[in-house]
UniProtKB/TrEMBL annotation:
Gene3D superfamilies: Cytochrome b5-like heme/steroid binding domain
Domain named Cytochrome b5 heme-binding: residues: 59-135
Single GO MF descriptor: heme binding
The protein, known as: Cytochrome b5 heme-binding domain-containing protein
InterPro entries for this protein: Cyt_B5-like_heme/steroid-bd, Cyt_B5-like_heme/steroid_sf, Cyt_B5_heme-BS, Cytochrome_b5
One GO CC term, this protein: membrane
Chief location category: membrane
PROSITE patterns reported for this sequence: CYTOCHROME_B5_1, CYTOCHROME_B5_2
Species whose genome carries this gene: Halocaridina rubra (Hawaiian red shrimp)
Top-level taxonomic group: Eukaryota
Length: 152
């Protein structure tokens, strides 16, 4: 089956036109399958100036939906113990490799993080990447349980 782009068959297209055709095809397929463009700004994200602050910690509040939008190598956020971390700059420095973190990009990584048994310096280094906290209604590690951040 011969594919054409306008009046010309694909094998006769100039490279620039062929790349344009490929980009349009990928764009159409992505929209049809429901994929989103990670570089596109979302209407769910609020600007930092009107972002709510947590009363106890004073940190910016980010919902799970907002964190889930940061799931690429260029923009990687994870959640650990209800706190939100932007680990984009740390990906290549991670001793276990960036793929370990990318498995949990945009999601909660607490169980995996806890299972590995990170050192105290690793826990202290997290402060550098802290950007916010989940809202009260979406927190898992709250209350007086043994998984509190301050018990680490």
């Amino acid at each position: 089956m011969k594919q054409s782009y306008g009046r010309l068959p694909l094998y006769m297209l100039q490279p620039k036109a062929l790349i344009n055709f490929a980009a349009q095809t990928i764009d159409f397929a992505s929209q049809t399958l429901g994929y989103r463009d990670p570089s596109a700004t979302s209407n769910l994200t609020r600007s930092d100036s009107d972002r709510e602050k947590d009363e106890q910690s004073g940190l910016d509040i980010y919902s799970l939906n907002e964190v889930s939008e940061h799931d690429s190598y260029n923009d990687c956020w994870i959640i650990l113990y209800d706190k939100v971390f932007d680990v984009t700059q740390f990906l290549l420095e991670h001793p276990g490799g960036e793929d370990v973190i990318m498995e949990h990009a945009g999601r909660d990584a607490t169980i995996s993080f806890r299972t590995v048994g990170h050192s105290v310096p690793a826990l202290q280094a997290l402060d550098e990447y802290l950007v916010g906290i989940l809202p009260d209604c979406e927190r898992v590690y709250t209350g007086s349980g043994p998984c509190q951040w301050n018990t680490l």
